[in-house]
Amino acid sequence: MNLENTQVQMRKGILEYCILHIISRGEVYASDMLDELTSPK
Predict the structure, then answer these.
(1) N or C: which end of the chain has fewer CB within 10 A?
(2) Is the separation of the CB atoms in 25 and 39 below 8 Å?
(3) For the whole prediction, is pTM greater than 0.85?
(4) DSSP assignment of 4-35
(5) Domain limits of the chain?
(6) Can you tell me the distance from the alpha carbon of 4 to that of 2, in angstroms, rounded to the nearest whole number?
(7) pLDDT tens, 1-41?
(8) Residue 37, SS3?
């Protein structure tokens, strides 16, 4: 694996974790997930 591929795979994993975390809190619409993922913290 090269460094670029590793970074891409890590981003995918982090995104998947974030989505699962949001879903675990209860029912949520896709638009709400996008708002939460894109809002600056």
Answers:
(1) C
(2) no
(3) no
(4) HHHHHHHHHHHHHHHHHHHHHTS---HHHHHH
(5) 3-38
(6) 6
(7) 688 999 999 999 999 999 999 999 999 999 999 999 999 87
(8) helix
Among 22, 21, 20, CA closest to 32: 22
* Among 5, 31, 30, residue whose Cα is nearest residue 13: 5
Please give the angle made by the CA atoms of 40, 24 and 12, to the nearest 5 degrees: 60
* Separation of alpha carbons 40 and 13, rounded Å: 20
| Pick from 3, 37, 39, 40: nearest CA to 18 | 37
